[in-house]
Amino acid sequence: MKVRFILLPLLLVLGAIFWMLTSGTTACFYGRVVDQHGAGVPHAEVEYYRDRRYWDSTQASDLLQTDESGNFQIIAPRTQALSITALVPAGYNSTNERFGNFTFSRLAYLLPASVAVPPHHADPAKPVLFKLSKMGETVPLLHIERAGPIQSFNRYRTGRKAEHVLQFDFTFNDTPLPKQTNQRWDIYDWSIHLAVPGGGMVERVNRELLDATSFIAPEDGYQDTLLYSPKPEPGTYRNDLNKEFFVRYGDGSYGRIEVRIQLDLNEDPNRKRRHFAVIDSYLDPAGGRALEYEQTKALEVPDSLLKN
User: Fold this and answer.
1) Which of 89, 112, 134 is the last residue of a domain?
2) Which domain holds residue 264?
3) What global pTM score does this model have?
4) How does residue 16 score in pLDDT terms, banded at 50, 70 and 90?
């Protein structure tokens, strides 16, 4: 009986402390949306959720706009946390630095430092930065996306002319290679042989969105064909391909192509493997080398190209 009389007041006290630390919390936040050079993005839209419930798809968000310098402020009464995202306006690309989650609950002061997330301290002199990537000078591009199972030989139209073609041979050995020491998963021998008939390809190594010049196709260095065959070694082997290429077609025009391959490693002997490919191609019909894609300037894709 004594235990009950001791626990009840203790629970009431803890409940009162919890209520005081959470019920009166007001989230105050200062942020700024900037580009890769640190310049503010004026009139950018910012979406935020108060105490976001990720399992609740019906939860409503709020929107606001930045000022001329890219600054914004959020004051949200009775809010323990904010989930904030800078939306991507025309003329910009997304980055991994345009999101943020921030807590304002004083409850953290009751928890061990190794567990607690320190409350965010708003400072108008030091706004939290949300970064976007400003595009360079863009031109209208023809963008074609295709996705589906791949065969031993594959051919994709990337533009209106006969020269605008990507093709590749794909080989896959269904028998896994002998397992090596410390190898947990099966390793297969496979390869992909890419080519632009009458033209050439070069891998786009610098895929950093923050550098607009990385979207300009080089004038030389193109190869007739490119072969990719992963090394059958644990630790380096991959069962997919995610590469991007600049291409120069036979008519002298330039393009950019993203190639993503995913192997089907299903072991069911009664089901045929269906390896999958996603091909994104970008082409400037005017022949220019600037290949950064802005969706608002996309050229209309003829139906005839989508069927081939």
Assistant:
1) 134
2) 142-306
3) 0.71
4) very low
